[in-house]
Specification:
Pfam families: Band_7. Belongs to the band 7/mec-2 family. It is found in: Membrane. InterPro entries: Band-7_stomatin-like, Band_7, Band_7/SPFH_dom_sf, Stomatin_HflK_fam. One of its GO terms (biological process) is proteolysis. The chain has about 260 residues and is of the alpha+beta class. Among the domains are: about 10-65, no CATH class; about 70-175, Tetrahydropterin Synthase, Chain A (2-Layer Sandwich). The chain has 8 helices and 8 strands, in the order αβββββββααααβααα. The chain has helices spanning about 1-25, 100-105, 110-125, 130-135, 140-155, 175-215, 215-230, 245-250; strands at about 30, 35-40, 45-50, 50-55, 60-65, 70-80, 85-100, 160-170. The strands form 3 sheets. A 3-stranded antiparallel beta sheet has the order 3-2-5. The protein has a 3-stranded antiparallel beta sheet with strand order 6-7-8. A hairpin with a 5-residue loop joins β6 and β7 (about 85-100). The N and C termini lie far apart (about 165 Å).
């Protein structure tokens, strides 16, 4: 009986020491440079502390840690119907961070899940207002529009959306073939326009050349002789070269102007 009392007498101080040590350990918290602690006093918001060593009174105060680093979140592929009734699948990535720990903890239950869901719905709504050609050609404009909307709507949660990037716009095989045909037709159209422009410029130059040659009677004859010289260099045995009769009048006309 005496030994049991001694044993209980030794355990009680030891238990108290252990309890004090545990309380002292739970009293101090170390927050890293990118962390903040939202402090609640008896369930009510008190302040935001950190970084460094902070003191939190056990059972009276509670701490919720918040990471302030930029989060890279992948937005799952979304089925989008464009304004010209084309069905595509689009996925994106968003970059955001917490700028107000108090709002991020108090105003929303889970700011990560809320931001993800908001990004998905915003991606569908914004892209649905544009045509397929705009999705493929004007990604920078669409990224800016989505980023502005997300940043405005998530401000109440203490979230700052810094960037949005559309990664892929997936099309079905039928639409890919249709786009290829459209691109081919566009190239053919451009080729015809370029050819017509070249013919127009060539005709203008020919008119200018004809006007210049007509100023001197022998200029056209010299041009014909030059062309004949170039043809003779091709080593052809027979050369058929048309020549206007006006050029021959000067050769057969008698001197002195008599017929």
């Amino acid at each position: 009986m005496f030994e049991q009392v001694i044993t209980h007498g030794l355990l009680t101080p030891l238990a108290l020491i252990v309890l004090v040590v545990m309380l002292a350990i739970s009293l101090f918290h170390i927050l890293r440079e990118y962390e903040r602690g939202v402090i609640f006093f008896l369930g009510r918001f008190q302040t935001v502390k950190g970084p460094g060593l902070i003191i939190v009174v056990p059972f009276i105060q509670q701490i919720v840690k918040v990471d302030l680093r930029t989060v890279v979140m992948d937005v799952p592929s979304q089925d989008v119907i464009s304004r010209d009734n084309v069905s595509v699948r689009v996925n994106a990535v968003i970059y955001f961070r917490v700028v107000d720990p108090q709002k991020a903890i108090i105003n929303v239950e889970d700011y990560m899940a809320a931001t993800s869901q908001l990004a998905q719905t915003t991606l569908r709504s914004v892209l649905g207002q544009h045509e397929l050609d705009e999705m493929l050609a004007n990604r920078e404009m669409l990224n800016a529009d989505i980023q502005a909307i997300l940043d405005a709507r998530s401000d109440a949660w203490g979230i700052k959306v810094s960037n949005v990037e559309i990664k892929h716009v997936d099309l079905n095989e039928t639409m890919i073939r249709a786009i290829a045909k459209q691109a081919e037709a566009e190239r053919v159209r451009r080729a015809k326009v370029i050819h017509a422009s070249g013919e127009m410029e060539a005709s203008q130059k020919l008119v200018e050349a004809a006007s210049k040659l007509s100023e001197e009677q022998n200029a056209m004859l010299l041009r014909y002789l030059q062309t004949l010289t170039e043809i003779a260099g091709e080593k052809s045995s027979t050369i058929l070269f048309p020549m206007p009769m006006d050029f021959l009048e000067g050769l057969f006309k008698p001197k002195g102007g008599k017929d």
